[in-house]
Amino acid sequence: MRVTFLGTGTSTGVPVVGCDCRVCTSDNPKNARLRQSVLIEAEGKSVLIDTTPDLRMQLLRFPVKWIDCILFTHAHADHIMGLDDIRPYNFFHRRSVVGYANYWTAKAIRASFSYIWADTQPGGGKPQLDLREVDGPFDHEGLRIIPIPVRHGDWTILGFRIGNFAYITDTNGIPQASREILRGVEALALDGLRYAPPHSTHFTIDEAVDTAHEIGIPQTWLIHMSHDVEHEEVDAGLPAGVHLAFDGLVLDL
């Protein structure tokens, strides 16, 4: 299995528009973070998690010939608004891309991109997405995918486990039942927005570290980081087994 981090930033991305802080003006490429997304290649399949507003740039930077399926964590703008950029795959392969989401996320995607399913504008002007609702483990062409329900403020959204890798973005709480799903995971990508102050919908870095240790994850990579996080300084201060992810990081598992 190969995991490529396409983007590791929070909803604004880093640099933040209009900001001249030391992280936003840094010349360290690890401080430049596109919106959060990841590509998982396993058992001959390419799985994209979320379609961020930066998706076109991400897929040009890290070329992918075909997306077998898209897993949607939730329907906030920074996780779905690049959906239109799957169209080239439709053009070249002449078929729909399959997407998976829970009921509420699927409903929001259908509302936000209603033109996809409208009986108007036929042809290449809209993405072809076969959107399927899931509420438990499922197989995509032989690849086992396990959704992981987590809290995101008042919402329940999804992380995902494929093999020995799990991915959880945008969370401030992992229920016990979901922690059980994570047993045996070797590498976890986990939301770690910043050190302080606390956030109502995201783990701080300390909360993410504590959660990973409580579950017993050998290797945790923090994601969805704000411009409060200077890569070299924060990464050097993390405990053994915890690291900051960065755009372009590749894990071979």
How is this structure best described in words?
With 253 residues, this protein is α/β, with parallel strands linked by helices. The protein has one domain (2-252): Metallo-beta-lactamase, Chain A. The protein is 20% helix and 28% strand. It has seven helices and 14 strands. The protein has helices at 55-61, 77-80, 87-93, 103-112, 176-181, 205-215, 231-236, and strands at residues 2-7, 37-42, 45-49, 69-71, 97-101, 129-133, 138-140, 143-152, 155-162, 165-168, 187-191, 219-223, 242-244, 250-252. A seven-stranded mixed beta sheet has the order 6-5-4-3-2-1-14. The mean pLDDT is 96.
Terminal Cα separation, in Å?
5 Å
In N-to-C order, the SSE pattern is EEEHEHHEHEEEEEHEHEHEE
**Using only CA atoms, what is the Rg?**
17 Å
CATH superfamily: Ribonuclease Z/Hydroxyacylglutathione hydrolase-like
The CATH top-level class label? Alpha Beta
How many individual β-strands?
A: 14
Number of helices: 7
Q: How do the strands line up in the largest sheet? A: 6-5-4-3-2-1-14
What's the CATH architecture? 4-Layer Sandwich
Count of the separate structural domains? 1
What is the mean predicted local confidence, pLDDT? 96
Short description:
By secondary structure, the chain is of the alpha/beta class. The protein has a single domain, classed as Ribonuclease Z/Hydroxyacylglutathione hydrolase-like (Metallo-beta-lactamase, Chain A).
Structural features:
single chain, 253 residues, alpha/beta, Metallo-beta-lactamase, Chain A, seven-stranded mixed beta sheet, 7 helices, 20% helix
